[in-house]
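Below is one such protein, fold included:
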Amino acid sequence: MTIDEEQRAIVEEFEGLGDAFSQYTYLLELSARLPAMNDSEKESCVLVDGCQSQVRLAATANDDGTMRVRGDSDTLIVRGVLFLIVRLLDGRMPAEVASTPLSFFEKTDLKSAFSDERIAGFASICATIRTLSKTIADSQGDDRQ
């Protein structure tokens, strides 16, 4: 599936849950499924500016040209969102990640349950991932895009 197709699947998954409270609860459940980063991993991550909580992201190139995406946060609800982002982007080509906007969040009822600061934080996470993926794509040259 493409990133856009996977995003549509996530939106449908959330629509099936019902209201914003049920979707919020599901994000809390997903947070437990995001692998925790150890302290040494956190040191090599990018600390995302513009988030209320501490959000760390890492993106590295795999031998096959795809990206490995990792994330962590000190807030459970953000960890749930990061789980979805990792699910969407891990194992993708960096050029695809750089060129595909992440829109699943805005298409769920979650947007109404989040503060403006949390919504801005999501945008900051997306911008950071886009920058990391562009850096990897640029380092690989045109042969892997």
About this structure: The chain has one domain: 3-140. The chain has a mean pLDDT of 90. Residues 36 and 72 are 7 Å apart (CA to CA).
